[in-house]
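Researcher: I need the complex structure. Ligand is S-adenosylmethionine. Inputs:
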Amino acid sequence: MSELDQESTRSLTTIDGLRATVRERYGIVAQRVAEGATTRASCCAPAEGSSGCCGSTTESWDPITADLYDAGQTAGLPAEALLASLGCGNPTALAALNEGETVLDLGSGGGIDVLLSAKRVGPTGKVYGLDMTDEMLALALDNKARAGATNVEFLKGHIESIPLPSSTVDVIISNCVINLSGDKRRVLAEAFRVLRPGGRFAVSDVVVRDGLPEAVRASMPLWTGCVAGALEEREFLDLLTEVGFENASIEPTRAYTRDDAAALLEGTGLDPALADAVEGKVMSGFVRATKPGAPASAKPVRQLETASKTTTAARSCGCDNDCCT
Ligand SMILES: C[S@@+](CC[C@H](N)C(=O)[O-])C[C@H]1O[C@@H](n2cnc3c(N)ncnc32)[C@H](O)[C@@H]1O
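Model: Output:
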């Protein structure tokens, strides 16, 4: 384990330390894309301890972030937005978004889901992206300019303290960010606060099924890699209900195999044999919930799409020189 990772493991105990480590890791990824990297951010990123292109690190082929968007959906988006995509699902493909609505993306990164939402809500709608990492915000602003999006605003701040007034947002989306927070109850309470009555929570995230080995839970590389901090399914649903949401549900969207578990453990310093204990315990899911109190006059939201089937991660690292084969 590198010195950064040892230091980071100690930081798991404080929210500020945790944020600093997460910010540093995602700042490096954003910087790399801004400097003109031509391969996807999750692959070959120069993280601490990386051995380079698709080497045995947490930044090599990533079963969580690979192949989330189809080409039809991302046509017309800046390549840099796609290169910086670090999610674990595709919330805009599953969320009902209507013309004129206000959407907030928690942890918007390079802005891919913000830009996709902006197309859906149209010029009479508005999409906010909220992120704490300066490098990501700079990348997102560049991507907004490249896309010519006029109904988009990026905000700097923490998802535990959303810088928007109460009851002003129709839909909250997020893609693989809530698991990174050291205070998930506060994130969900803040999401509830800023949603309008009847507003929708429509979030992709990693969710744990039956508990993870303690060593995995304590691994900072796996925390910044979106696994160690993931909520258990029941815990996520209970927290949503406790902060006031109703109709909370989690739909599995991607299941991780033993090979995927082995890939996730690479470069973490953990015993590769732990893959057996991780297999089947981690999934990506689409989390839905509603803030009660929709006005009686509110138009019914069109039927939400559902993920047609749970996929397993397709093994393609996105490197353009066959470095993963
Ligand atoms: C895994 S990346 C996902 C980015 C984006 N949603 C996507 O799908 O590409 C996590 C992002 O969340 C941001 N983030 C993590 N924790 C945060 C927090 N507590 N408050 C605000 N932003 C946070 C990071 O800066 C990073 O840009």
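Model: Summary of the prediction. Residues 19, 22-23, 26, 85-87, 107-110, 112-113, 131-133, 136, 158-160, 175-177, 180-181, 226 surround S-adenosylmethionine (CB under 6 Å).
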